[in-house]
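ok posting inputs for the pyridoxal-5'-phosphate job
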Amino acid sequence: MSYIYLDNAATTQVSESAAKAMLHYAREEFYNPSAGYAPALEVRKQIKRSANEIAGILGASGEEIIFTSCATESNNHAFSCGIKNKKGNVIVSSMEHASVYECAMRLKSKGIDVRFVNPDSSGHILPEDIAALADSNTAFVSIIHCSNETGTINDIQEIVKAVKKKSPSAIFHCDGVQAFCKIPTDVKKLGIDMYSVSAHKVGGMKGTGALYVRKGLNLPAFIAGGGQQESRRSGTENVCGIMSFAIAATEYRNAASNFNAHELRDIFIQKFAGDEKVKINGSGTDSGYVISISFLGLRGEIIAHGMEDKGILVGLGSACSTHIRSNRVLGSMGVSKEFAEGSIRISFSPHNNTAEAITAADALKEITDELRVRMSR
Ligand code: PLP
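and the output
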């Protein structure tokens, strides 16, 4: 069965050229990049080229990119190495992906002073709320760039300024997974120290991520071993994944510059405009790639199953999270349990088109109207 796929914040289809590259480096240029012979040196050169390509999208340089196994690892890397030799408090938002939030909870359970900041009702972290929590002992801050639940974009530049004013030596990490290739990003302008990205959200292979680490930020090694990646993350590089990542990211970024995600998002907003039992979560600055919709008194999973029966795949929230965790983010924005439980997440890629969005919005209206009639009987 062919589906209308609207769960692109969970993962994306691997692009054809990324898949080709992957196969090439698996079958043809399969050499260990650490070996000393010429074909292996060529592979090493290609890894560097890929790092330059990823870095270019972020306004960084290739030597500032560490390849990882996924963004979950990048986030864990940032926390483990960013805090290792530092004393002080940590600030994290409650709208983070689980791979950041759980790192923060682990620190908290070890007795570290972890301070959580809630977004406002529009789904944004306010610089002044961060400023109120930070002090001269703030050692590490992690704030998400673009929400995986609602698509809202945080003003990272202003948030960084608010932190560094109070604690100039604080390390600032940003989870950029849902912003990467979608929102023009210059890590230097943002003033951040670390930035996490993932390949499979932009047409690359699952199992590859990257972490930007600002030059001059001397972090301890995350994985000890053979000294690959300047000894910061040892282990033979995932050559196939890395090559597919760079190709996919460049392609995705180019496709995104000709794609109006807001046009598709607006189709859903207009479909449910004026219905008091329907809530669009998050407003103001957003990527357009994600829309979180809550239906009062309904269950998100029943709506999603109804959509699947009609050949449309949507999400319930972060794919690797349970519904309860997705409620964490909506709850922190002040969305009531009665609304949050009836939430679905629809997310686009440049491969989606208006016709698909219209079909999906019509189906969603039909399913939720039907569920309401059934409930009132
Ligand atoms: N951060 C955000 C904002 C995400 O949306 C995701 C995945 O959904 C991750 C981190 C984890 O990415 P990965 O699947 O590469 O570990």
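notes: The chain has two domains: 4-12+259-376, 16-254. The two ends are 34 Å apart (CA to CA).
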